[in-house]
Protein backbone atom coordinates (compact mmCIF):
# COMPACT_ATOMS: atom_id res chain seq x y z
CA UNK A 1 0.00 0.00 0.00
CA UNK A 2 1.39 3.40 -0.96
CA UNK A 3 2.04 5.77 1.91
CA UNK A 4 1.35 9.47 1.56
CA UNK A 5 1.47 12.59 3.69
CA UNK A 6 -2.00 13.79 4.68
CA UNK A 7 -1.41 17.54 4.39
CA UNK A 8 -5.10 18.36 4.77
CA UNK A 9 -5.34 16.64 8.15
CA UNK A 10 -2.02 18.13 9.29
CA UNK A 11 -3.18 21.65 8.37
CA UNK A 12 -6.51 20.99 10.06
CA UNK A 13 -4.78 20.13 13.35
CA UNK A 14 -2.30 23.01 13.03
CA UNK A 15 -5.02 25.63 12.48
CA UNK A 16 -7.08 24.34 15.40
CA UNK A 17 -3.92 24.51 17.52
CA UNK A 18 -3.37 28.10 16.41
CA UNK A 19 -6.92 29.05 17.46
CA UNK A 20 -6.43 27.24 20.77
CA UNK A 21 -3.22 29.21 21.44
CA UNK A 22 -4.88 32.54 20.59
CA UNK A 23 -7.87 31.84 22.84
CA UNK A 24 -5.62 30.62 25.69
CA UNK A 25 -3.72 33.90 25.53
CA UNK A 26 -6.97 35.91 25.55
CA UNK A 27 -8.28 33.86 28.50
CA UNK A 28 -5.13 34.66 30.45
CA UNK A 29 -4.40 38.24 29.34
CA UNK A 30 -7.58 39.64 27.75
CA UNK A 31 -7.96 40.95 24.21
CA UNK A 32 -5.03 43.13 23.14
CA UNK A 33 -5.70 46.41 21.32
CA UNK A 34 -8.47 46.33 18.73
CA UNK A 35 -8.44 42.54 18.34
CA UNK A 36 -11.81 40.81 18.33
CA UNK A 37 -13.12 37.58 16.88
CA UNK A 38 -16.05 36.41 14.81
CA UNK A 39 -16.37 32.68 15.42
CA UNK A 40 -18.87 30.68 13.38
CA UNK A 41 -19.66 27.15 14.47
CA UNK A 42 -21.98 24.25 13.68
CA UNK A 43 -24.71 24.22 16.33
CA UNK A 44 -25.59 20.60 15.46
CA UNK A 45 -22.09 19.31 16.20
CA UNK A 46 -21.91 16.81 19.10
CA UNK A 47 -20.50 18.52 22.17
CA UNK A 48 -21.85 22.00 21.39
CA UNK A 49 -23.73 23.27 24.44
CA UNK A 50 -25.85 26.40 24.01
CA UNK A 51 -29.14 27.58 25.52
CA UNK A 52 -32.27 26.03 24.03
CA UNK A 53 -33.51 29.41 22.77
CA UNK A 54 -30.22 29.95 20.91
CA UNK A 55 -30.44 26.46 19.42
CA UNK A 56 -33.96 27.25 18.19
CA UNK A 57 -32.87 30.58 16.73
CA UNK A 58 -29.70 29.14 15.15
CA UNK A 59 -30.58 25.52 14.30
CA UNK A 60 -27.53 24.81 12.11
CA UNK A 61 -24.92 27.57 12.41
CA UNK A 62 -24.18 30.50 14.69
CA UNK A 63 -21.63 33.31 14.71
CA UNK A 64 -20.53 34.77 18.03
CA UNK A 65 -18.40 37.83 18.62
CA UNK A 66 -15.76 37.94 21.32
CA UNK A 67 -15.05 41.62 21.81
CA UNK A 68 -16.41 43.99 24.45
CA UNK A 69 -18.21 41.75 26.92
CA UNK A 70 -17.31 38.16 27.58
CA UNK A 71 -16.33 36.25 30.69
CA UNK A 72 -15.38 32.81 31.93
CA UNK A 73 -13.32 32.02 28.82
CA UNK A 74 -11.87 28.58 29.48
CA UNK A 75 -9.85 26.77 26.82
CA UNK A 76 -8.73 23.14 26.69
CA UNK A 77 -7.52 20.72 24.02
CA UNK A 78 -11.07 19.90 22.91
CA UNK A 79 -12.57 23.40 22.65
CA UNK A 80 -13.59 26.37 24.74
CA UNK A 81 -16.37 27.63 26.94
CA UNK A 82 -17.34 31.26 27.31
CA UNK A 83 -20.19 33.35 28.66
CA UNK A 84 -21.50 35.95 26.20
CA UNK A 85 -24.15 38.62 26.53
CA UNK A 86 -27.30 38.34 24.39
CA UNK A 87 -29.59 41.32 25.02
CA UNK A 88 -28.47 41.67 28.65
CA UNK A 89 -28.84 37.90 29.15
CA UNK A 90 -25.50 36.24 29.95
CA UNK A 91 -25.42 32.81 28.29
CA UNK A 92 -22.69 30.23 28.86
CA UNK A 93 -21.74 28.08 25.88
CA UNK A 94 -19.36 25.24 25.11
CA UNK A 95 -17.87 25.05 21.61
CA UNK A 96 -15.62 22.15 20.54
CA UNK A 97 -12.85 23.10 18.10
CA UNK A 98 -14.21 20.43 15.74
CA UNK A 99 -17.45 22.44 15.44
CA UNK A 100 -15.69 25.56 14.10
CA UNK A 101 -16.45 26.74 10.57
CA UNK A 102 -14.72 30.14 10.57
CA UNK A 103 -12.46 32.17 12.83
CA UNK A 104 -11.91 35.79 11.82
CA UNK A 105 -10.06 38.66 13.48
CA UNK A 106 -11.06 41.64 11.31
CA UNK A 107 -8.74 44.02 13.18
CA UNK A 108 -5.77 42.45 11.39
CA UNK A 109 -7.59 40.95 8.38
CA UNK A 110 -6.93 37.38 9.49
CA UNK A 111 -9.34 34.57 8.79
CA UNK A 112 -9.57 30.80 8.70
CA UNK A 113 -12.36 28.78 7.14
CA UNK A 114 -12.86 25.09 7.89
CA UNK A 115 -14.87 23.43 5.14
CA UNK A 116 -16.48 20.06 5.61
CA UNK A 117 -16.39 17.68 2.70
CA UNK A 118 -19.68 16.84 1.05
CA UNK A 119 -21.42 13.81 2.45
CA UNK A 120 -21.29 12.03 -0.89
CA UNK A 121 -17.49 11.94 -0.75
CA UNK A 122 -16.27 8.65 -2.18
CA UNK A 123 -14.13 7.90 0.88
CA UNK A 124 -17.02 8.86 3.18
CA UNK A 125 -14.53 10.51 5.53
CA UNK A 126 -15.51 12.96 8.24
CA UNK A 127 -12.38 15.11 7.84
CA UNK A 128 -12.43 18.83 7.09
CA UNK A 129 -10.54 20.82 4.49
CA UNK A 130 -9.04 24.11 5.55
CA UNK A 131 -8.66 27.26 3.55
CA UNK A 132 -6.25 29.79 4.98
CA UNK A 133 -7.12 33.22 3.71
CA UNK A 134 -4.13 35.49 3.37
CA UNK A 135 -5.07 37.84 0.54
CA UNK A 136 -6.58 41.13 1.78
CA UNK A 137 -9.24 41.08 -0.95
CA UNK A 138 -10.55 37.75 0.29
CA UNK A 139 -10.41 38.87 3.92
CA UNK A 140 -12.43 41.94 3.09
CA UNK A 141 -15.09 39.76 1.49
CA UNK A 142 -15.08 37.41 4.47
CA UNK A 143 -15.25 40.26 6.96
CA UNK A 144 -18.10 41.93 5.12
CA UNK A 145 -20.08 38.70 5.06
CA UNK A 146 -19.55 38.18 8.80
CA UNK A 147 -20.05 41.84 9.71
CA UNK A 148 -23.82 41.42 9.44
CA UNK A 149 -23.73 39.44 12.68
CA UNK A 150 -22.11 42.23 14.70
CA UNK A 151 -24.46 43.87 17.20
CA UNK A 152 -24.43 47.66 17.04
Describe this structure in words.
A hairpin with a 2-residue loop joins strand 4 and strand 5 (89-96). The chain is globular. The chain is an alpha+beta fold and 152 residues long. It has a five-stranded antiparallel beta sheet, with helices on both faces. A three-stranded antiparallel beta sheet has the order 3-4-5. It has three helices and eight strands.
Set out the fold topology:
Layout lengths: L6 H23 L7 E6 L9 H6 L3 E6 L3 E6 L3 E8 L2 E8 L3 E6 L4 E7 L11 E6 L2 H12 L5
Antiparallel strand pairs: 1-2, 1-6, 3-4, 4-5, 6-7, 7-8
Distance between the termini: 56 Å
Order of the strands making up the biggest sheet: 2-1-6-7-8
Average pLDDT figure? 79
Tell the overall outline: globular
Which sequence of SSEs, written as H and E, runs from N to C?
Answer: HEHEEEEEEEH
| Helix proportion range | 25-40%
If helices are DSSP runs of H or I spanning 4 or more residues, what is the number of helices? 3
Class by alpha and beta content: alpha+beta
Biggest sheet: strands, sense, closure?
5 strands, antiparallel
Low-confidence stretches: 117-152
Question: What is the C-alpha radius of gyration, as a whole number of Å?
Answer: 16 Å
Oligomer: single chain
Strand fraction equals 25-35%
Number of strands: 8
Amino acid sequence: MARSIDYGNLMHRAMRGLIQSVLEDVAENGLPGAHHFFITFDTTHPGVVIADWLKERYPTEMTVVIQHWFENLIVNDEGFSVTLNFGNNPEPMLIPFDALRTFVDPSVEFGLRFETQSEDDEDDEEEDDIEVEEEPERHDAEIVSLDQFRKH
